[in-house]
From TrEMBL:
<dbReference type="GO" id="GO:0005886">
    <property type="term" value="C:plasma membrane"/>
</dbReference>
<feature type="transmembrane region" description="Helical">
    <location>
        <begin position="182"/>
        <end position="201"/>
    </location>
</feature>
<keyword id="KW-0813">Transport</keyword>
<feature type="transmembrane region" description="Helical">
    <location>
        <begin position="106"/>
        <end position="130"/>
    </location>
</feature>
<feature type="transmembrane region" description="Helical">
    <location>
        <begin position="364"/>
        <end position="385"/>
    </location>
</feature>
<feature type="transmembrane region" description="Helical">
    <location>
        <begin position="397"/>
        <end position="415"/>
    </location>
</feature>
<keyword id="KW-0812">Transmembrane</keyword>
<dbReference type="InterPro" id="IPR005828">
    <property type="entry name" value="MFS_sugar_transport-like"/>
</dbReference>
<dbReference type="Pfam" id="PF00083">
    <property type="entry name" value="Sugar_tr"/>
</dbReference>
<keyword id="KW-0769">Symport</keyword>
<feature type="transmembrane region" description="Helical">
    <location>
        <begin position="274"/>
        <end position="291"/>
    </location>
</feature>
<feature type="transmembrane region" description="Helical">
    <location>
        <begin position="21"/>
        <end position="40"/>
    </location>
</feature>
<comment type="function">
    <text>May be a proton symporter involved in the uptake of osmolytes such as proline and glycine betaine.</text>
</comment>
<feature type="transmembrane region" description="Helical">
    <location>
        <begin position="151"/>
        <end position="170"/>
    </location>
</feature>
<protein>
    <recommendedName>
        <fullName>Putative proline/betaine transporter</fullName>
    </recommendedName>
</protein>
<feature type="transmembrane region" description="Helical">
    <location>
        <begin position="303"/>
        <end position="325"/>
    </location>
</feature>
<feature type="transmembrane region" description="Helical">
    <location>
        <begin position="331"/>
        <end position="352"/>
    </location>
</feature>
Length: 438
């Protein structure tokens, strides 16, 4: 295996924008418990959360369109151009949420503004995942790609941690009345400003050599990033959907839904539930590069299989136990157990998908199937969970998560190993790392 150095400039440049993207994406869910009442009439608290969760899910259903449009854009115009565009869209959506009027002022128009903002976020994130995954993978030499691409989930989790950290600060510096009234707008203003800064940083990134090599090829220029070109790799596209299914449901269960579950079901104070999530996610973030580096040594499939088995077998007892925790310690231990299990998926899923496709359709091949899987399973996870709870059969959701993991496990057991895949013609011909421009 190659011992070439990791191109940290490219890794950091790609990751910091991803962090802001996912800060904005997750902060909606993190602060939903405070702003739900601002956009819907008085009623059952769970019903209000169902409404805000439904709007959260709307963003996921925009992701396939974003995956198609921005994945195509990344394959035709470059990874850097796509990364810059996605963060621009995210900044605009965060600003819309920050200024959205309340139900008391304009009725349901405020909720309509939320929907528009979530549609923009879905469009952006649908392309961001693929552009970031493709950029991090292509910008890194063979033998280090698992490690480097794991920073996608490091940055995703860091974005969520910043959001949760800000929530903890606001919880301890503002009254509940102020938070419910206007304080929840602060994190969206922060997100909009941070995205504007990242826009400048991403404009200074260098394009990957794998894309530049493809750009110089006269053959197949017209078909780059098209659905027709993707259909030539139908098996790989279906593979991305199937291997994502279990991972995305488990990820959103133990991240965005966890704080609500600990508060709404276990009965922990919102402040305690938030602190549990923050501490567990911080440790989870630190584990990603370790697992990514391990995959560079032993392959991607062993980690995926470990996740599949752990999630299939462990979800029901873990979630049942979490529903009965009474304090910080028990909640942290059980939450961290679930996050350790899904590390086998999160640390390497980006690189696995990128390694399945050739350069001319790599971004679209990662973006569209992944976005479809997230729209069907990841984006609806929170809504499905709350629906089961509202129906009085909350444990049904735990079995649903286990079933999704079982389907993905079958894929992990039968798919090919991708660790040694060549990502460019240069690698195919020389088996040497493609040099990274700095």
């Amino acid at each position: 295996m190659s011992k070439a150095r990791v191109p940290w400039k490219a890794v950091v440049g790609g990751s910091i924008g991803n962090m802001v993207e996912w800060y904005d994406w997750f902060v909606y869910s993190s602060f939903a418990v405070y702003f739900a009442a601002s956009f819907f009439p008085e009623g059952n608290d769970t019903a209000k959360l169902l409404n805000t969760a439904a709007i959260f899910a709307v963003g996921f259903f925009m992701r396939p369109l974003g995956g198609w449009l921005l994945g195509r854009y990344a394959d035709r115009k470059g990874r850097k151009a796509a990364l810059t565009l996605t963060v621009t869209l995210m900044s605009a959506s965060a600003l819309l949420i920050a200024i959205a009027p309340t139900y008391e002022a304009v009725g349901y128009f405020g909720a309509a503004v939320l929907v528009v903002a979530r549609l923009l976020q879905g469009l952006s994130v649908g392309g961001e995942y693929a552009a970031s995954a493709t950029y991090l993978t292509e910008a890194t030499p063979p033998g280090r790609r698992g490690f480097a691409s794991s920073f996608q989930y490091v940055s995703m989790t860091a974005g969520q941690l910043v959001g949760l950290g800000l929530q903890i600060v606001l919880q301890n510096s503002m009254s509940k009345e102020a938070l419910n009234s206007w304080g929840w707008r602060i994190p969206f203003i922060v997100g909009a400003l941070a995205a504007a800064v990242v826009f400048y940083l991403r404009r200074n990134l260098m394009e990957t050599d794998a894309y530049d090599e493809e750009e110089q090829q006269e053959e197949g220029q017209a078909g780059r990033g098209t659905i027709k070109a993707l259909l030539a790799h139908k098996k790989e596209a279906l593979l991305v959907i199937a291997l994502t299914m279990g991972g995305t449901v488990a990820y959103y269960t133990y991240t965005t839904y966890l704080t609500k579950y600990l508060s709404n079901t276990a009965g922990l104070a919102k402040e305690t539930a938030t602190l549990v999530s923050f501490c567990a996610l911080f440790i989870f973030m630190c584990l990603q590069p370790l697992a990514g580096a391990l995959s560079d040594r032993i392959g991607r499939r062993p980690l995926l299989i470990t996740f599949g088995i752990g999630s299939m077998v462990g979800t029901v007892p873990l979630m049942t136990a979490l529903g009965g925790v009474t304090g910080f310690g028990g909640g942290l231990l059980l939450s961290l157990t679930g996050l350790i299990i899904i590390t086998g998926y999160t640390s390497i899923n980006a690189v696995v998908k990128a390694e399945l496709f050739p350069t001319n359709v790599r971004a679209l091949g990662v973006a569209l199937p992944y976005a479809i899987a997230n729209a069907l399973f990841g984006g609806t996870a929170e809504y499905v969970a709350l629906w089961f709870k509202d129906s009085g059969i909350e444990s049904g959701f735990f079995w649903y998560v286990s079933g999704c993991a079982a389907v993905s496990l079958l894929v992990y057991l039968t798919m090919r190993e991708t660790r040694d895949a060549a990502l460019s013609r240069a690698e195919q011909g020389t088996h040497e790392p493609v040099p990274i421009r700095t």
